[in-house]
Amino acid sequence: xxxxxxxxxxxxxxxxxxxxxxxxxxxxxxxxxxxxxxxxxxxxxxxxxxxxxxxxxxxxxxxxxxxxxxxxxxxxxxxxxxxxxxxxxxxxxxxxxxxxxxxxxxxxxxxxxxxxxxxxxxxxxxxxxxxxxxxxxxxxxxxxxxxxxxxxxxxxxxxxxxxxxxxxxxxxxxxxxxx
Length: 179
Ligand code: IMP
What we know:
The protein is an alpha/beta fold. It has 3 helices and 10 strands, in the order ββαβαβββαββββ. The chain has helices at residues 16-33, 49-57, 108-118; strands at residues 3-5, 8-14, 40-45, 64-74, 81-86, 96-104, 124-132, 145-149, 155-156, 172-175. The strands form 2 sheets. A 6-stranded mixed β-sheet has the order 5-4-3-6-7-8, sandwiched between helices. Strand 3, helix 2 (49-57) and strand 4 form a beta-alpha-beta unit. Mean pLDDT is 91; it is low at 75-80. Inosinic acid (IMP) binds next to strand 6 and helix 3.
């Protein structure tokens, strides 16, 4: 069944079952990879809040979780968008970090954020993203755990938004083809 979010129509893309099954697989893999390491998960708000919740529920190795918000704005220099993290109070030194992101599109957000995280001297940083648009990637980035690759269509639901709306569903929808 299609849904309307503001001025756009979206059609079903991933069902609740498909999402939950894939998250269970990711959680099993991450739990095995990080056994005995006490990793710190960092969820990127707002979009990853549902994914982070469901992933973390299924992690079986002792772990902690924190959330941050990345604020992007146009700087006055030619470097363009500047990203600042808000709310990270943990000491990251020597911690094994797993970033939980909703979707990696061009990779700009993550490739800008990671160097600032590296300055806090964690032992390691890996990225876990629910969705990835491989064809849109413009910034060199290693994605360690990817839920689903998609063809680059705009998606909403399960925490992902269109202008703030459309987050509130258990499924993910993609934008309807406009002909
Ligand atoms: P990037 O910096 O281009 O990789 O974009 C990543 C951010 O853009 C994500 O964290 C989302 O907030 C947003 N974004 C990219 N594609 C979509 C989409 O299809 N639906 C909703 N948000 C998206």
